[in-house]
Fold:
Amino acid sequence: MKRLPHKNIEAFVFRLWTREVSGEKISEKEKEIIEQLKLHTEKDVDPLHMKESRERVLSALEHYFAPSEKTGHIRSFKKYVYRIAAVIILLLSLGGFFTYQAFFKADVYATESGNRTVHLADGSVVTLLPGAELTVAKSFPASTRVVDLKGDAVFSVAKSKIHPFIVHAQGFSTQVLGTVFKISQSGKKKAVDLYEGKVAVSSAGVPVSYLKPNQKWTNFGIAHTTAIISFAPDRVSGKKVPELLSLSFNDVPLKEVITLLEGNYSTKIYYPKETEDKKITADFTGGTVGENIESLAFILGLEVQKKDNTYILKK
Structure:
């Protein structure tokens, strides 16, 4: 099929389809062109969006079909309006590629190597780190500003007290009204670092976490796990020192809980081998390492014996 300049394609297609639905005779060659256009344009079109488009067109034309006493006129009028509807629907289905690309298909920004800066319509700025991908719907910004992220990115969100900004990442989401934060995703490990403002981080199976500046949310790569870490400057060196503020588990195997406690509290914990797969639900917030291990032992029905920096859980 001969290639046409893009600006002439829509006009050509519209004239051809108008002739078809109006009952005018079209040649076999023209029928072949319509079929080729149909195959070419529909392969990349989302069927759900096309269905919604057709429904909106028919809904908008419904008031033309209301009953009338002038039945003779309404029959001819209906015929005329049905032809208009047919042309529009043909444009949406056969030529849906143009409509879909212009009004429905989301904008996707990606970077393979190096950083990429994306300026969103609401004034927010997103810096995509290598390997990241940001998807922004055509409706953005709406009453709720929503984007989807794969990989790592730094967000500088334009402030709005009435329009929340939500980032749907892989398995968790971050909601803000206006702030600067970084989302990191590496395999199962997820994290949100907050630099300015406040954010709420939600993940399946655990309570929502609220961060303040210089705090970090992470799941340590374990499902149904959430932790908040504070990075406060050391009074002597001035360097930011991590401090575990909270650690929550919801139905997590004991062996994984123990591994996290040992790593974050720089201690060693021994426990009965037969309990390693027992599912633990606990919230360790604000307690010392000893208090939190005592709480864990209480959940397990075990006694605690401490020796130097080692804890032994036993029956």
In short: The chain has seven helices and 19 strands.
